[in-house]
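FAQ: What does the model actually see?

It sees only this:
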Amino acid sequence: MPGATTTALASLHDVELCARAAAGERKAFGELVRRHGSAVRGLLRRMGAQAAEADDVAQDAFLVGFERIAEFRGQGAFVGWIKKIAARLYLRRLQRERRLGIFAAEGEHEMEAERGDADGRIDLDEALKGLGPSERMCVSLCFGAGLSHAEAAEALNLPLGTVKSHVKRGLDKLRTRLAPADGARVEGRRGNG
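And it is asked to produce this:
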């Protein structure tokens, strides 16, 4: 009964599925792809990939993940592990296409983030579109893919301070953009200095 196997796999934790996949059970890995495919594609879209490109890179990331599943030790979430793989693959793709030069350019043109929708609400994806390319990439890598600032700096081939600056500016813009329209302060959300 194929339905019973699928139901049984759906009830397992990611760590258990990874162990089964490492033992050669392909259906267990298929369940991981089903669970986390949209999250990986969403990250890639936030990083700037078009839909078809996000699908391609996500598929490549899951293939790499399948080949390396024995390396996953369950010390973090599987989705974070596979997102890191996907982010690195996407960055390599950008480097191959020589589009990464814009992230290191000084005096980059900032995009205007003063757009809004009819009822004054906005979602995170729309807010990310209001960031400059380097800010969007750094914020997506550090918060979407879970890379540290140092890992993002290495992946982007940028100085650590530059990545930190892009992340800070990007987060400041996102806070402003996503703040309540009436200017009310959100209690308990103060920064550290």
